[in-house]
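Technical appendix A lists one of the benchmark inputs used to test multi-chain prediction within the project. The record comprises two sequence entries:
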Amino acid sequence: MSGETLLAAGYVTVLLLVVIGLDVYGRQSTGAWESRIFTGYHRAVEQAPVRADPDAWPHSEVHRFHRAVSLFVSVVALVLTGAEAVRHHAPAEVALLVAVAVPHGVLLALLGRRLRAARVAPPG
Amino acid sequence: MIARGWVQAAILVTLGGFFVLGFLAIRTYQAQPPIPDRTVTAAGEVVFTGDDVREGQRVFLRTGLMQYGSIYGHGAYLGPDFTADYLNRSATMVRESYGGDDSADAHDRTVGDYRVNRYDDSTGTLVWSDAQAAAFTELTGHYAGLLGSPDGKQGLRPDAITDPGEIHDVTAYFAWTAWTAAAERPGHDYSYTNNWPSEPLVDNEPTGHTVTWSVLSLIFLLVGTGALFTAFGRWNFLGWHRRDHRELRFHSPDRVRLTPAQRATAWFFLVMAGLFLAQVLLGSAAQHYRADLQSFFGIPLDRWLPYNLVRTWHTQLSIFWVVTSFLAIGIFIAPLISRGWEPRRQALLTRILLGALVVVVVGSLLGELAGQRGWLGDLWAQLGNQGWEYLDLGRVWQTLLTLGMVIWVVILFRGLRRRLRGESVANMPWLFFLAALALPAFYAVGLLATPDTQFTAADFWRFIVVHLWVEDFMELFTTATVAYLFVLLGVVRERVALSVIFLDIVLYGAGGVIGTMHHLYFSGEPAEHLALGATFSALEVVPLLFLTVEAWSFLQIGARRHSASDTPFPHRWAVMFLAAVGFWNFLGAGVFGFLVNLPIVSYYEMGTGLTANHAHAAMMGVYGMLAIGFAVFALRYLIPENKWSDRWPRLAFWSLNLGLAWMSFATLLPSGALQLYKVVESGYADARSLGYLQGDTNVFLEWLRLPGDVVFIVGGVLPVLWMTWLGVRHRVGRTRQPGDAEVSLLFTEVGAGPSGPDAAGDTAPEDGSGGNPEDGGTAGRDLAGADRDPADGDRHLVDGDPAGEEVVAP
């Protein structure tokens, strides 16, 4: 097995963590009042501001943006594994590349469906 | 309007930062490596002189070699790092001359030749071994072949440097930097460059300082973040006591009448987009050199557009196009800050500024071409190519660009002066103006780096521009501008925006000013630069955590404001570009920046693809997206409603972001990581060699970037260019008239109150004198009322009582 294939497989696996990390990061609340920076403010003010509605714009579209970028990283991973398979395609190499590509494919299918289903209700 | 403590903290932090920076500037001159008057052999034979070294630096800069390779890891990444390359090649030759692998003491003798500092300060003489002198002679021939290759095909134009005297001098320059990289600093057991680069042949390895301060800076980061979160959890630092609540009715863009100067900014945005397109096309050409050095699809590109010229233009234009947008948005919002008032001839001055900007951009780019080609004779540094990366332009152009920014500040002052007259210096109009004033002031610092300045000192001043100007003062202007835009849109109270700006000054001032030194760990500075740079630049990540929150706060507040408006919020895509700024600030500046920030990582990583990864994701991701966001904001008013389509900004938004993500994750990150591995495995010189870059795996990764770049350019840049063209072609013809006061502003506030929701009056007097501070309680108000007086912000935050929170539909 070529060293390059091993490196590509390793990097594609790292990208899986990047995709998950970015998606989790993108799920964080964009309601600024819920940030820890405002904890002191919450202590001082009796009426806590209402929680941001994640389905309201711009929160909805910001969440969609993060998910789209993270899924795009999966696309990069699949292209990388495909290109690597063209360069090195001994059976063991192809098997390894398929093994690391499958989770990206599954993520793309699952999160991609959610992304398509998401409604952003833009202003206007 | 803002608590005095914020102002005092901002002043103290800024003064403290600059006091330390001043101390470090003095230490730079005291402790930079000496240039020996003469370097001789034990027999007294002169190898090269101090004048040769200084002249070599001039050759290096004039011929654009800093945009081809690097010195001390600073410069471009295609060609070799000449410091590491010379050190590796010469040490290899010296070792061979001592018997190589067959000799038991060859390694020790080689190490002794390089590490023992035989420079006598009293006589200005450096003594080299005969083996070192012989290596110098041999390497002069090597660099004659590399730099004067008649075929090109190494990234430089054919026959780039052929004069034997120039070859001798530039080799002397490389040799001197290599000597400083291995010779031990007097009184210490590490070299002038803190043992950089990694080179086993001369026992160059990380120093105790490098390791210790890496660990300590991590601890400071954790403690700093924890302390700040704890402090924010315990105290209401921002000083707000009621939640802000009001409803707004936005004016649709076609109801907003622009001033003549605002209309003139349409041309600025068109020029910005043109420069952006040129910049990315040149970037593509530079990238092609990394993928295929031989030719550009059969075209011998290196004859006309060699890599070093292409990269010079690429990096210079990255500053030019972003600054063009910043200049334009400043001019665009000045009349809004002044409540619709604009002095006479402001549009004329704006057009003169644009003309001057075009002259400087075109003149400096052509000057760099002429300078590198040697067409300007002795005027190369003045009119041509000074050659310091990012400060490549000739000194005349550099001065004119600074003066252009001064003219811009004058334009802003003229437009703001009525407003500034009655405002506290701690309020938003002054903060906006002072943030603008800092831009020419700190860009001018770059003039201290001349072609005759020793590299270490020049790098110090260069990074005042590259880091401090960009990361601190452009950041400050950005925050002030974005905050003001949201104030002008009515989605953020002025007091809230002020808190954010002062928080920005304190946090960035604490980390960013001294943190500038994280660029200078290994460029001949003493260890204190490394210690302070590591500590404070680690703290820079803290405001990045908060900056993301800050962007969200604008979004959050903005979302709540527009929801009940019957006129849709007109800036969907400008806000989305700002959301992208928040994302890339986190990923490009925060994660990718911190990845390469620790001294122990930087020691191996500096000048590899991971630096390019951070640079692209941060510069394009933050300032590029911001510049386009500013343009989209202004174009929303410049392009008539019937010509506006969300299709173009949507396409540009997605293409630019996804193209940038592709660039980073498909090529820059993996190739940079592989190169870093190569540095640790084989030493720095090997990992930076053309041989490594042309290796099969690296070339594969370089080609993999192509699809993302196509998306970025075709789907991202071209729509921006088209939109800005529409802004010029169809820009609205009507300009403001005195009777337009009530529609000059961007929103009308609608809330509960005695005047009822239809009272859209209470407009600002045309003279901008302010009006009655007590009238802030009226229900229907315009922008001028919204940020008119210091008490106003407080009152509206107090409006959060139950009665005031009743929403009245517009």
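Chain B has 28 helices and eleven strands. Chain B touches chain A through 55 residues (CB under 8 Å). Comparable benchmark entries are summarised in Table A2.
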